[in-house]
Every structure is written in C-alpha cells, then in structure tokens.
Amino acid sequence: MSDDKTPAKFRTFLILGAPGSGKGTQGKVLGSIPRFHHLACGDVFRSLDTRTSLGQKFVEFSSRGELVPDDLTVQLWRANIKQRVDSHQFKPEIDFLVLDGIPRNVEQAKYMEADIEVLKVFHLSCPDRTELARRLRKRALKDNRFDDANESVIQNRFATYEAETKPILDHYIGDRIVDIDASQSPAKVLYDIIGSIMTLEAWREQEKLRI
Ligand code: ADP
C-alpha cells in the first residue's frame, strides 16, 4: 500500500460460514453500502478463464468440494485486491473491506496477517445441514453452480468446512467473533451484522469523516 493516508493493513470484516449459510448474500448487500467493499473469493475463482492453469486447478478442486491450495489462493487474492486498489474500486483509506470465502483455513489466515486488520468475524451459524443443503440445491439451479449440484460434493464441502474452515474461529478467538443465527431471514442477519459494526470505534471514526 502506498501514501501516508493509506492504513498499513486493510480494515476488514470477515464473513465465515458453511456453504449455503448466506455469506455471499450478506457480502453483496454490505458491499452495496457506500464505504464498504466486498470481495468473494469464490467469485474471483469463477471469473478465471478455465483454459488457464489456475482456472483448471479451480475446477479440479472445487468440483470435488475441496479447497484450492493455499499458496495459489493467497497469490490470486493479493493480485486481485491490488488491481482493485490500483483502479480505485477499493479505497483502503476510506473503505472497509468485507471478505467472504477467504481466509478459508488457518494457514490462509496466517498468510494474510500482513495484509488485513480483522475488526470482526461474522460467523453465520446454521447447525441444520439439511437446510443448508436445500439452499445449495436451489442455488445450483439458479446460478449454474456445478459444485452445488451433486449430493456427494455438497457433503464433502460441509466436511471441508468443519475440518479446515471452522478452526479459524479459534484463530481469531475473543470478542472479534460474532455468532449470528444464519437460519434467520437475510434482512435479520444483515440487521445483526450492521448492529455489531456500529458498536465499533473504527465505525465511529469513519462516521466523523462524513465523506
Ligand atoms: P460457498 O459460498 O458455497 O462456500 P464459494 O463460492 O465461496 O462457495 O467457493 C466455491 C469453491 O471455490 C470452494 O469450494 C473452493 O473449492 C474454492 N475456493 C473459494 N475460496 C477459496 C479459498 N479461500 N481457498 C481455497 N479454495 C477456495
């Protein structure tokens, strides 16, 4: 990052949850609010040309319900966020970053420590896997998501989430973690997230700027 107004690390909110918990929905809505910038790692992967070697790696791993290797993922993320900063889509000196889908394991969280200051981790919690699988099957039809269409891939993604992603909650342990009931309506989940953001000192500072 460059000039002196730019913070040393991106001020970041993480949205964490099992596949189908509504991370993308919440990320998109938050990202449409001025001074919030949303980045979904899955969308960055899906925008890759599948003829490139990275694009092929994405198809290979995601179609099995597995994570793309960490070094490739973090490199892609860094390149993508740099593009957004350089093109002034994301303005780190005045915008909060909302990340969904990354970091997706503790290793990625460690790699990204140099880049992001995590203000809050919104854990969209929904123990009812039947409800999540129902949402995924609905999304498979609507959004043409090949990784949502197959029952065994869905189950594997849940298992990957439990084994690799959930331990992130212990990594960021403390009052940064906010548990939110993801079985509520999208509007209520959003209300809970925004309510929590508004208690933050960083938010109050932002409000004073009146940009
Ligand atoms: P969902 O919202 O259902 O959890 P995503 O769109 O975030 O799904 O991700 C789809 C797939 O892309 C994942 O199953 C995984 O294979 C790959 N992927 C996305 N983000 C990451 C990441 N941070 N690390 C590794 N693989 C990832």
Strand and helix map with partners:
Layout: E1 10-17, H1 23-31, E2 36-40, H2 41-46, H3 53-62, H4 70-86, E3 96-100, H5 106-111, E4 116-125, H6 129-143, H7 151-165, H8 168-171, E5 177-181, H9 186-197, H10 201-209
Parallel strand pairs: 1-3, 1-4, 2-3, 4-5
Bound molecules: adenosine-5'-diphosphate.
Give a written overview of the molecule.
By secondary structure, the chain is α/β, with parallel strands linked by helices. It has a single domain, classed as Rossmann fold (3-Layer(aba) Sandwich), CATH 3.40.50. It has helices spanning 23-31, 41-46, 53-62, 70-86, 106-111, 129-143, 151-165, 168-171, 186-197, 201-209, and strands at 10-17, 36-40, 96-100, 116-125, 177-181. A 5-stranded parallel β-sheet has the order 2-3-1-4-5. 30% of the residues are buried. The model has no long low-confidence stretch (mean pLDDT 93). The structure holds adenosine-5'-diphosphate (ADP).
Brief account:
The chain is α/β, with parallel strands linked by helices and 211 residues long. 49% of the residues lie in helices and 16% in strands. A 5-stranded parallel sheet has the order 2-3-1-4-5.
Order of strands side by side in the largest beta sheet? 2-3-1-4-5
Distance between the termini: 21 Å
N-to-C order of helices and strands? EHEHHHEHEHHHEHH
Radius of gyration: 17 Å
The CATH homologous superfamily is called: P-loop containing nucleotide triphosphate hydrolases
Q: What is the averaged pLDDT score?
A: 93
Low-confidence blocks of residues: none
Domain module count: 1
